[in-house]
Specification:
The chain is built from 10 helices and 7 strands. It is α/β, with parallel strands linked by helices. The chain has a single domain, classed as Alpha-Beta Complex (Spore Coat Polysaccharide Biosynthesis Protein SpsA, Chain A). α2 links the parallel β2 (34-39) and β3 (56-59). The longest helix is centred in the C-terminal third of the chain and has 22 residues, at 214-235.
Length: 260
Amino acid sequence: MIGDKKIVLVMPAYNAAKTVSRTYAEIPHEIVDEVVLVDDASHDETVAVAKSLGIRTFLHEKNTGYGGNQKTCYQVALDLGADIVIMLHPDYQYTPLLVEAMVSPIARGVFDCMLGSRILSNGALLGGMPLYKYASNRALTLLQNLLGGHKLSEYHTGYRAYSRQVLEGIPFRENSDNFIFDNQFLAQILHSGFRVGEITCPTRYEADSSSINFSNSVRYGLGVLGVSLALCLHRTGIKAHPLFTPLTKARERLPRTGGR
């Protein structure tokens, strides 16, 4: 805990048997109250390794996709009474050593959502991010800031932390089950008026790190532009979109204390 805030760390896993031990070993367990791993029908020994480490493990019998996996992660965390939920990929791409820095601003009431940005420093390219991914990240982020009326350094990081109020106030279960889930969720958070902060975060692109291929990256990019355009049209009153319609002043309707 930090203060009286219960912190649950969730790991959406798919074929992470080779890296989950290294990831788990670096988690600051002195502040993390629960660690949850949700396995999305892996073909390797992810579940066996996670259970051997004593991690609370849940298994999808069928692959639900990256977004579908997160939905289970967040629901389990809420059921466990989490005040703050932090998502950490078990593929060791993002360092667990920044967990405290990610959750502290939420615990102290400074932000409602925190992002670990690979772009605020030179972490992305130094960590091995392919140049085409870096270039597309920068281009998409520029367009998203212009269309959404915000100013973030990156919308595409997989290192995120949320207050309970965010998870209870955003209908994330209705979002996509695929990789576009993250962008839908973040667009909804920003539109709802929740406070979003960023810290710089190094990254590692290694053989065992998960990453979508080029064709899926193209589909992802088009999906991101679709979400951003929908947000732009919605917030300017040109065309309402169901993704954002129920979110007006969501933050003001929520209590500021976490439930356990």
